[in-house]
Amino acid sequence: MTSRFAPSPTGRLHAGHAYSAVRAHDLARAAGGRFLLRIEDIDPGRARVEHIAGIEEDLRWLGLTWDGPVWRQSERLPAYGAALDGLRGAGLLYPCFCTRAEIAASASAPHGTPPVYPGTCRHLADDPARRAAVPHAWRINMGKAVSRAGPLLWHDATEGWVSAAPTAQGDVVLARKDAPVSYHLAVTVDDAAQGITDVVRGRDLFEATHVHRLLQALLELPTPRYHHHPLLADAAGRRLAKRDGAPGLAAMRAAGVDPVELLARLRGGGIGFTPQTA
Ligand code: GLU
User: Fold this and answer.
1) How far apart are CA 170 and CA 73, in angstroms?
2) Residue 5 CA to ligand 1 centre (angstroms)
3) In this model, does residue 237 exceed pLDDT 90?
């Protein structure tokens, strides 16, 4: 059994990240399995190399250990390229030239949710000259992919067997305009390449798993078991998030928080956890 923690180095870890890391770590250790650390640094606008060492330091301070080398997604681009080529060759991808503003204007989405792509570029005739000249993303033709893959199931530790239902998310991006791969593709390829048997992550990624299950089928990759855990909330019941000033592990450390006690609190609690900063 192999689990992983896969943070994006857009900042240092806060208690919500630590909670996820502890759950993934403990699941593996309890089974005598392996716990891997993977840095998801494919976002050129937000990932910062200096946060990578910081994240490792935060985890070590908390007392977590991981096995094997730390993978960085920025070093895995050829593997993603090969997966994209396979899907492109199967006629399941198309280039999309739309800007964010165009998508927002033409898509209807409830406030606060990302717009579902309206399919503007889906049936454009291929135009290599335009592709060479104009930045573009690559999207999956979701309808075609779903009918190609047929019915699919995945297993969640809390929900049990789930029918994969990625259609509602529309033609998601697999290669970004500003990066050669998207989260959905990179995470699917890497979980398989690292032999991850158990994916432990926050409930906020539950819907993403529908897309990952589809990609596993199309790329003929194994399907891990999933453990989507509740998100930590602050004392006011709000989800811990960096932008709302959730205290980082580094700040807790500087404030003299005892990591052993913090670890015990993360293990025991979860919802309603209120980080202690003094
Ligand atoms: N890198 C993602 C994040 O930091 C998590 C990916 C995953 O666990 O699948 O939100």
Assistant:
1) 25
2) 8
3) no
